[in-house]
Amino acid sequence: MDDAGILALYFARDERAVTETAGKYGGQCYAVSYQILRSHQDAEECVNDTYIRAWNAIPPARPTFLGAFILKITRNLSLSAYKAARAEKRGGGQTVESLTRELADCVTGNPEAMLESAELSRALDRFLRTLSQKERCVFLRRYWYADSISDIAQQCRMAPGTVKSSLHRTRAKLKIFLQEEGIFG
C-alpha cells in the first residue's frame, strides 16, 4: 500500500494503518533503533512505541513523507531510551556521544542541544543538498542511522579508509558551510 493509502487509514482511524505501517517501515525502524540501542529487545520496544506515537499523532499531523515521519519518531524514541539507559549505567562503545564528538568540530557549543534547533536542521538540509549522492549516503548512514564505518563501507562498496576520508572531508565542508551561514563562528 502506498503512503497516501496508509495516511487515509490513519485519518479514518482504521487500525489497519498500524499493520500497513509495520509492513512497510517496520524493518527500517528496527534497523535504526538497533543501531542506536544495540539491543534487540529495546529496539523492538521502540518500534512498537513508534506505532503508538504515529497513531496518536496522525491526525492531526499529515506528514508529507510518511517514511521520514515514522523513522524520525523511531530515532527520537531510541535516542531517549539510549539516554535513559546511559544515565543508569554510564557504559561505553560506539555511542551517540562518540558520533556527536565527531561532529563537535563543526558544531561548537552544545552539539546535542543544537541538533534540536530548527535553524540548524534547516541548514543541515541545505548542506546535504550540496553533496553528491555518495557523500550524502555516507554522511547520513553515519550520523542519522549511526552505522559503523565497516557497515557503511560494505553498503556503499567502498574501502573503510575511503569512508573515513569521505566523512572527514564532509565534516570539513559542513564546518565551512555552517560558518558561511552564520550559524557557528
Short description:
With 185 residues, the protein is mainly alpha-helical.
Topology:
Elements (H helix, E strand, L loop, with lengths): L2 H9 L4 H22 L2 H18 L8 H24 L6 H8 L7 H5 L2 H13 L2 H11 L5 H8 L3 H21 L5
Structural class: mainly alpha
What's the overall average pLDDT, rounded?
A: 84
Q: Which stretches are low in confidence, meaning pLDDT under 50 for 5 or more residues running?
A: none
What percent strand?
A: under 5%
What's the end-to-end separation, in Å? 47 Å
User: What is Rg?
Assistant: 18 Å
The major pleated sheet works out as: none
Please describe what this structure looks like.
By secondary structure, the protein is an all-alpha fold. Helices cover 75% and strands 0% of the residues. The protein contains ten helices and no strands. The radius of gyration is 18 Å and the shape is globular. The protein starts with a helix and ends in a 5-residue tail after the last helix. 24% of the residues are buried. The mean pLDDT is 84. Residues 122-174 form the RNA polymerase sigma factor 70 region 4 type domain. Residues 24-86 form the RNA polymerase sigma-70 region domain. Pfam families: Sigma70_r2, Sigma70_r4_2.
Task: Supply database-style keywords.
185 residues, mainly alpha, 0% strand, globular, sigma factor activity, sigma factor, RNA_pol_sigma70_r4_t2
